Each structure stands twice: as structure tokens, then as C-alpha cells.
Fold:
Amino acid sequence: MGLDLRKAEGKSKPNDWWAYSPFHEEKTPSFHMGPGGLWFDFSIGEGGGAIELVQKLQSNNCFEAGRYILEQGWAHASVDLSQPVTHTRDSVRRSVTKSVTACDKPNAPFNEVIRQDLIAMCDHHDVLNQRGISTETCDALGIGFLPQGRSPLKGRIVFQVADARAKKEGQPAERVILSHLGRAISEDIDPKYLFYPGFHKSAELYGQEILWLNEDAHEQIAKTGSIVLTEGPSPNGERIALPCLRRSIWQSIVSSFRTSSYRDQWGY
Structure:
């Protein structure tokens, strides 16, 4: 493709193209591209079209990315690329760059509330029993196995990603659903973790809604002055850390969706 993408030959099919992530080293291919050049990297939870990919790989703006695509012959347009950029266009570009650079902080990623509830279609799988996760814990956190349906999370352990938000200003916060995470039930299924495209992992913490809505969590935070942070709802194949801890007396526990946390996740 001209972008130094390492194709996963054994996994790729016509109109279903897989490669190793170009953004970091990995052993399991997590970069997917479908018809029309739409791509999604499951390892970083980001995707888009050809322009967004070139932008991210080459750290340029959308105009430069579009020009690069045209120069490579990947698309065609009725413009003469041999002509220099006009003074007016160059002034506009420089003013936009100056305005963007002047921003102290970019807009924080935000996840909208969704209506879909996959847990309503889930069952309690044996793998949850084997790891000591009770049906009560699954009901409280929104965990289950999705046996069928059209969702890409079918055949996976599904974790409901929730938050505590007020529907209107002045109303009390209530539990709302932001997305779902699917975890493979065996190590030979790729990718191991599967998010819906468009979900911003860096903006949320798993179990965050309980910190707001659970009285025991409030009391524990007040007494200890701390919150327990674990790595992911399911950091490895042996146990599901947060549900196992939540089953005990601890309620003030949250998990990151990656091996590191971000300032936006703690903007409480």
C-alpha cells in the first residue's frame, strides 16, 4: 500500500485485510481494513479513512494527507498539483495552524450514551464460573456471554462499559451505558479484546459508575482516601481482576482499558 503496513497473509481475505499495527510493535495483527479503505486498529481503538490514516502515520494535516494520496495515484481529482499553493490558501493554512497551536489543551474525547444493551441477550458462561465470578457480580457489573446475534462481540465474554450521568441539569446521576467490550474466551481467537469503533478508551474507567452510585464505595473512599486501580477488566487469561475484587468487600475499584492511564480518565 506504500505505507509500510505489514500484511497478515494467513488472516487476510478479499475485502477483509489484516495487518500488524503500524503504530507500535505487536505479535498479533490488530489492524483491519475493509472495502473502501475504511480501517480500524483494535489495539489503540482508533480508525477512519485513507486521509486519517496518512495523517496519523505521517503527522501531517488533512490537506497534506490528501495531496499525498493524489500524488501516489490512490485517488484522482480535477486539480493541477504542479501549481504552487496560492498566497490566499497559504495564509488560511498558516492562520489555522496558528490557532490550533495556540490551544493549551485539545478537546477531551467524549463517549455518548447508547441505548443498546447487549447484556440483555447474554448468558452466564462456564468460563465465568471457573474464574469465580458469580451471577450476582455479573448482574451488578453487566457481564455475560453473547451466544448469538449480529454483533461483532458474538461468542465473547461481554463487559458493559457504563458511567453515572444526569439526564438533565439538576437531576441525580444514574447508570448509563457507553459501550461494550468483548473478551475472547480462548487464547487462539484474535483479537483478544474487541471494542466497538468510535469508543474512546482513554476517556473512561471500567466500573467508574459505582464510585458515584454505590454507598459502600463512597464510605470506603472517605475512610481510605484512595481508589484501587487495576489493569483492565480482564488483564490475562487466568482471572478477571476487577470482578474478583468486587466480589469481596471492596467497592472502590476501577480498571483502565489499557496498560496506562490518562489524565482525562481522572477528571472527576
Remarks:
- The mean pLDDT is 77.
